[in-house]
Amino acid sequence: MTFGELLRAHRLRVRLTQEELAEGSGVSVRAISDMERGRAKGPQRRTVEALAGVLSLAEQEIRELLDAAKEGRVRRVPSPVTPSALPPDVVDLTGREGELAALAAVAERTRTTSVVVVHGPPGAGKTALAVRAAYRLASRFADGCFFFNLRGMDVRPVHPSEVVHRMLSALGVPEKEIPAGEAERSDLYRARLRERSTLLVLDNASDEAQVRPLLATGSGSLVLVTSRLVLGGLEAGLRLGLDVLGPGESFDLLGAIAGRARVGAEPVATARVATLCGHLPLALRIAGNRLASRPKWTIGHLAGQLVDERRRLSALTAGDLQVRTAFEMSYRQLGGKAAALFRRLSLVPGADFGPEVAAVLADLDRFAAEDTLEELVDMSLLDTAEVPGRYVFHDLIRVFAGERLADEEPAPVVGRARRRVVDWLLGTAVAAAGFFGPDARTTPSGSLRGQEDADAWLTAEAGNWLGALRWAAANGLHAEVVRLATAMHWYSDQRGRAETWAEVFTAGVAAARALGSVRDEAVQLNFLTWTLSVLLRRYPEALALYDEAWRASVAAGDVVEQGWAVHYRSVSELRTGRLEEAQVSARRAQELFRLAGFGLGEQISLSCLALVLDGLARHEDAVRVHRELLANVRSGRLELAPVMATEMSATLLVRTAGSLGRLARWPEVLAAVDEALELLRVTTAPSSLCDALYLRGVALHELGDAEGARAELVRAAAVAEEHRHPRLAVVLGALADVHEALGDPVEAGVSRDRAAAVESADR
């Protein structure tokens, strides 16, 4: 065994991490990692003895370790094999024309020596791209094309001096004229390349140190380096990060391997296989080969095998091609801390994550977690997300990380890590939601300094805290589910997606029932009724749910929840045009809130009554009521948190402007919405912002400022589209009218078509 293999075996036998061995011996973690990976083959005697002391080795074991280190220091004679021939080209290389064009452009403008680094995750097809490029570009380089597999993922990567020796042989230097000394050999290597035009492909590089000695200035030469690492330390003229293929390209690759007629006969199943392969070229190639070698299989049968994550990597095997093996080669290069974090990241509930989630999972501080995440990115085992500072797994690599977690860490340890991140996500979500509503917190909570931070966190981590909620619901953490759903009520009033809140409050209802808490059931049923009515506009369902909410609130003896139930009934009746019934319900809700001494509820139900009055064409009455309510909010009588007082004031101003618009009092509309927009500068309330911009655009149009109107309506449409506001079709219709007024029928038609598409999708 080599020194590195012996050292790793002894360390694992006594169950020490590389960090623990480093702490005890005084040898750095990096040095230990290099030894175990074969990069440092022959450490000095004092280093070996320091390591042996911590490992508690017997005398014979120490002698074996010293002998292995001595053997590693012996200079080895390089192989005389001449590596000038390229490997076979991959005839069905798919989806890389853009990268090949970029490489051709570099070759075209090369005057001295250009360096290009092609990096990407295992299985992305880096070697296939480099080989195809070399075949296409070889004729441009008069003195030849040379290919070297540096075996960067092996225990013993190829040493640069070996490549230099083999390159000199390939350039025709007689063996007896190749210097024995490494420095002299490198000098001759550079001298021979200085006046030559060559294409040098250095495939599968382990790191910058392996590549640097091979970079020599030539006359119009190109060095093409492939690596799973980014190799950020190299000065490269171009870096090509290979991503996965697009859906169409994946379909084409499967067709090229398995048969175009075959995939054409099962397009849905083929698309499913491509998705389950994560559009990774290696996985797609294996899937295609499996289908080609099993002509009686349907593509749907293979898709069925790949659906189960526990079998997916095993199913992606064809002969000596294995996705799992490709991942394992990179995984073996990781140090202990990075490997542990990599495994535990498979527990992240959402699609992407930030350093805080990683820190909780691995029980590290945030900065150590961030450094380790960047190490995983450099190893192409993790990718950066679209949002700066966040990270994402490739689907198949996440499955592999989950396998390693199950195989290498005890179930109780995994369980504690999962529960730790679930508790942290739910707890932080509750704390963030606490910055919204009538009793909003005003003091910082952890890393959340205020409402802006809280909103940003809840938005960025939506997939994760929602995933944590699902796990909690499935695993009987009912109290935690109710706590989160209750905390989210006021936040959900202006933010997030309607479908999210339907899921959250449905889970809240189920959890309350599991706990046997009738009051919590009433609360959650009211939240869900509001979501169905106000956000999803599913009015029949909302009205049907009212009966359940009313019965639960009566059973709980909670008059406030009875008021909410009747209030949400009035909202559904208003939205379905049952205005007289809505008026009765709104007044009944007022009475219940007044009976309970709940001023805020009374205020909100009165605002609903004003909307009913507006619907009954009693616009003057609606304006009067909304202005009265606005005065109440501004007086401080309701004791609202400043943030909620601001949002409620903005909402009331927008509603006032809506009634004024129906009275054609356009200057007053502008005054009201301008005041609302000023308030909305300091808070995030997309629904009110959209309505204010829409009304401002309409008012400007009516007052003869069509250009100003267009600008406001374009902004309103953007906000409505981003936040799925139900007014989007109306905004687009108004924008079409403005385009017509400005003499732009083409843009008017575009807006009308968009409005029609939105209305069709909403039906």
Automatic annotation (TrEMBL):
UniProt xrefs under CDD domains: HTH_XRE
Name a Pfam family for this protein.
AAA_16
InterPro entries, alphabetically? Answer: AAA+_ATPase, AAA_16, Cro/C1-type_HTH, Lambda_DNA-bd_dom_sf, P-loop_NTPase, TPR-like_helical_dom_sf, WH-like_DNA-bd_sf
Signal peptide span per the entry?
Answer: none
Coiled-coil ranges per UniProt: none
Boundaries of each HTH cro/C1-type domain copy?
A: 7-62
UniProt GO molecular function: ADP binding; DNA binding
Database matches in SUPFAM superfamilies: lambda repressor-like DNA-binding domains, P-loop containing nucleoside triphosphate hydrolases, TPR-like
> Gene3D superfamilies given for it?
lambda repressor-like DNA-binding domains, P-loop containing nucleotide triphosphate hydrolases, Tetratricopeptide repeat domain, Winged helix-like DNA-binding domain superfamily/Winged helix DNA-binding domain
Q: Which domain of life is it from?
A: Bacteria
> What is the official name of this protein in its record?
NB-ARC domain-containing protein
Organism, per UniProt?
Answer: Saccharothrix saharensis
Q: Taxonomic lineage of this organism?
A: Bacteria, Bacillati, Actinomycetota, Actinomycetes, Pseudonocardiales
